[in-house]
Amino acid sequence: PNSFESLNSNFRKTCYSISDGRVFIIRNSEIIENEFYAHPNTEVWTVSFLDPEGNLLATGADDCSLSLWDLRTSCIDEPIMKNKKSHSMGVTCIQKSNRNHQFWSGSYDETLRFWDFRMINSPIYEHKTNGGIWRINQFEDYLGMAQCYYGLEYLKLDPNLNVEKQYISVPNDSESQFSHNSIVYGIDTFRMNNTLFGFSCSFYDKTALIFQILEE
C-alpha cells in the first residue's frame, strides 16, 4: 500500500491506497467494505478518515488533487468535493486536526495547508516550509513534519491552530547528532513521564531517531 490508516487501535475500520489509483476500505481487518478508483492512472499518496465514524474520507494524489469522499453512498463514482488548483505538486499527506472539520495537507511543493472540509475551494491558510512534506503529526500544540530531503521541522501552534512560530528545525546532514542522512519519511510525537519526545525515521539509511523536545 502507498498509504494506510486505521480509524482506531482495534482496526475496526481501515483504509489504504495502492499505486494504480484504487482505495480500499476494510472493516474488522478482513471484510472489504468498499473498493473504488479514487484517482485513476495516478499514485494515491495519502488517505485519511476525517470523522470519527469513518464516513468521510480524504485522498491526495500525485496529480495535485485533494478529494473528499462520502463512504455512505452505495456507488462511489465521484468525490463530493475536489480541489486541483491549490497544490502545485503531488499531495503527499493528510492529517486531521483535533478540531472538528479541520485538517492539514502536505505536498512536494513545500507548503503546509490548513483546511475546513466543509469547503475546500481554498485553504484557511498556507505556510511555507523548508522541504517537501511527506508526513504531518499534530500532538497538543505542536505540529511535526517529515520533510523528505530537507529533514524535520516542528511548528508551535496557537489556540486557533494558526502557526505561532517555528519551534524546531533539523536539516539532514547537519552538525546535530540527531540529524538524518537520508530522506525523512516518518514523524511522531509522544509524552513519557510528562516529558515530550519526538520520533522520526528516514529511508535509505534505515535510521530511526528518538529525541527530547525541550518545552518553553
UniProtKB/TrEMBL annotation:
UniProt-listed SMART domains: WD40
WD repeats mapped onto the chain: 50-73, 84-118
GO MF term set: diphthine methylesterase activity
InterPro entries: Diphthine_MTase (IPR052415), WD40/YVTN_repeat-like_dom_sf (IPR015943), WD40_repeat_CS (IPR019775), WD40_repeat_dom_sf (IPR036322), WD40_rpt (IPR001680)
Keyword Hydrolase included in the entry's annotation: yes
Enzyme Commission (EC) number: 3.1.1.97
Pathway(s) this gene product operates in, as recorded in its UniProt entry: Protein modification; peptidyl-diphthamide biosynthesis
Top-level taxonomic group: Eukaryota
EC category: hydrolase
GO cellular component, one term: cytoplasm
Stretches of the chain forming a coiled coil according to its record: none
Family (UniProt): Belongs to the DPH7 family.
Name recorded for this polypeptide: methylated diphthine methylhydrolase
Originating species: Cryptosporidium parvum (strain Iowa II)
